[in-house]
Amino acid sequence: MRGFDKKEYKERVNRALKLMEKSNLEMLLITSPQNFRYFTGLDSYFWESPARPWFVLLSQANDPIAIVPSIGESALQKTWVKDIKTWQSPNPEDEGVTAVKEAILTINKHGCRIGCEMGKESYLRMAINDFNKLNDILANHKFIDASPLIWKLRMIKSISEISKIKKIISIASQAFDELPNHISIGQSEIEITNIMKKKLLDLGADHTLYMSCASGIGGYDQIICDPTEKKLAEGDVLIIDTGTTLDGYFCDFDRNFGFGKLTEKCKTAYEVVLEAAKQGMEIAKPGNTCADISNAMSKILNKNSSISNSVGRMGHGVGLQLTEPPSIMKSDNTILRENMVIAIEPCLEYETGTMLVIEENILITENGFERLTSPTPKNIPIIS
Description:
Elements: H1 6-22, E1 27-30, H2 33-40, E2 55-59, E3 65-69, H3 73-76, E4 83-87, H4 97-107, E5 113-116, H5 128-137, E6 142-145, H6 147-155, H7 159-178, H8 189-202, E7 207-217, E8 236-246, E9 249-250, E10 253-259, H9 264-283, H10 290-303, E11 315-317, E12 324-327, E13 341-344, E14 347-351, E15 354-357, E16 360-364, E17 369-371, E18 382-383
Parallel strand pairs: 1-5, 3-4, 5-6, 10-18
Antiparallel strand pairs: 1-2, 2-3, 7-8, 8-9, 8-10, 11-12, 11-13, 13-16, 14-15, 16-17
Helix pairs in contact: 4-5, 9-10
């Protein structure tokens, strides 16, 4: 089944309303594509165009109100949301501001607290000048950062969400497992990642929205860039990190591949990173914190390198976005809870400018964790 049934969306809204009540918020104004989809079920490539903002207004007094450009009305009518307001867009002079204002005043004319996506790993998908205009028009209302509330909702996945995430991780795992049979020394990073992308589609994935790739002798110096025309040669290690989706939900993990003969130092470094990932997963259980996972992995990594970890964090949440809160880092004391989906991602820079990274996806269960990715090879697969 694509999307979710009406009951799922209503449960999300009801959970939001309960958290809003605890935070003394009468309304929640949603603007980002991911959260719009989370509450309404609508997905559209049209969001790639920044010309038109889209809004959903949740309130204690009303069912959700979608406030959208008129071009989106028919699409919204196919979702569970019934109260749809529109305006003609693009309209630079009034890009939905009046429509949003009127919807808010219909619910509360006198003033109240309204939550918005203004904080951690969140953003307002509307012009800041328009948001300021809305503030001025609604002088008696106060806009409050509600991103902690939203992330509290989204960090805990429903059974239906978990099913979709498991499926896309299974697809990507199979693609990674089969990739060594189709690549060889002399191929370029672009050629290899194109093979991987085709394999993902053939296995049933929807889109590969993220595929970083890097290679070098014994490792690589970064893990965020697109593949290049560089051809793989003897002694290289290639990493492919994919964020591929199914029905909007991401996987996010990587695999490493060696080309020809690798040094003993490289092989040992890989074993260390693999051990750190295993230790991180063992610590990942309800009641422990993200910092606990980070500290456990750092202890292993720091024993084997005098060079500090250079990627900032070693994991994060996964769901409707490639990366979501929480963060696996020493300063994140988020308590792990059942039905969180987490990427565990230790990194070891074992020589200056040369690192190895292993990333796994896991589900936090009642008493521990469930590994969602296929087992990482104990040794780097060698491509000849």
